Amino acid sequence: MDKNKIQVIVIGGGLAGLISSICLQRSGVKTLLIEKKSYPFHRVCGEYISNEVKPFLERMDLFPKHIKTSKLSRFKLSDIKGNIAEVDLPLGGFGISRYQYDNYLYQKALDAGVEVKTKTEVSDIRFNENEFTVSLKTGESLTSEFVINAYGKRSKLDKVFERDFIKRKSPFLGVKYHAKVDFPKDVIGLYNFKGGYCGVSHVEDDKVNICYLSRRENLKGYGGIAEMEKAILHQNPILKGIFENAEMLFEKPEVINEISFEQKASVENHMLMAGDTAGLITPLCGNGMAMAIHSGFLASSSILNFYQGKLTNRQEVESEYKNVWQQNFSKRLWVGRKTQNLFGNQMSAGLSVGFVKHFPYLAKKLIQQTHGEVF
Asked: How many of the other CB atoms lie within 10 Å of CB of 247?
C-alpha cells in the first residue's frame, strides 16, 4: 500500500473529529482532517465535560493539565419563577471552553502527524468502487478508504446526503456567551424560562459560560436577541440577576439556528457519523462533549480493527460501529429527548424542581441515565 495514500478523511475538527484523527494517526493510519474554520474559535456549547471520559483523556495525554479547568460537582435546577432545587452530580466533571480545548487538541493532532486542512469546506462526498471521493469547494478532489463525518449539529452536507432530520424545520436556536459574573465555581445551573432553559457554569480562568436553548418563536415581536432576553429570560429572577450583573466578554453572542434533537443514523452511505453528527443530546443532560469524545474514539477503534486485521471488510466495520454506538449512546439520547419535554414550561418545570427537591436519590439516578460508564 502507498504510504502516502490517505486512508481516512475526517470531516469536522470538533471534539469527535479531533479525537478520532489523533487515535488513528497515532496508530499508523494516515489521516486527513478537514475543518472549515481556523483555530481557535468559539462554538455554541455548554462547555462541561463529564468525568466519564477523564481517565481516557489522561491515558491518551489529551487532558489539558496546563489549563486551569473548573471542577463541577453540583447541579442546580430552577423553574421559570426561580424556585431552586440542588443535587450532587454523580460523576462530576470539568469546565473548559471549546476555544481553548479544541485548539489544544488541534495542536495534539498536528504533533501526532495528522494532516489538517483548515479554512476548507467540503461540498460533496461520493462512495464508488470501495473508496470515497471527497470534493472541496475549491474544486479539488481527495480520495480515501474511509470517511468519518464529525461536522457537528447541522451542515449543508446534511442536505447533500438527504438526511431525514434535515427535511424538517427545528424550533430551537442556541445562544452562548462568556462572562465575568459572580457564580459558584463548582455548580452547573440550569434555569428554565418560557420556551427554553439556560445553562450556567465556570470554564477556565474564572470565566463563566452562559448558554441557552430557546424556541425560535420567542424572537417574534422583539427586535433581536437582547430584547428577547429582557422580555423572556428575565422573567426568571435568577437569570435576570445573572444577565444584569454579567460583564459579557463577546462583542456579540455565538448563535446557531435550527438545532435538531431528532434521531440520526450512525452510519450513512458507508460513512461513519460521530459526535453531534450522529446524534445530539439535549443540553439539560450536560454531557454532549463527553459523548463526542467517546464517539470519536469508537469510530477510530472500528476502523483500526480493520487495519489491524480484527475485522475483514467494510461491512464488518460499519456493523461494529453501529452496535457500539447503539450500546453507548442510544438509551441516554432517548432519556434526554423525553426529559427535555419537562423544560420551558412553568408547570412541568415546577414539577421537576419538586421532584429533585423531594427525591434527590432518584434525581441522581436520572442524571446517571444520561451519562456513560467511565472508560
From this structure: 9
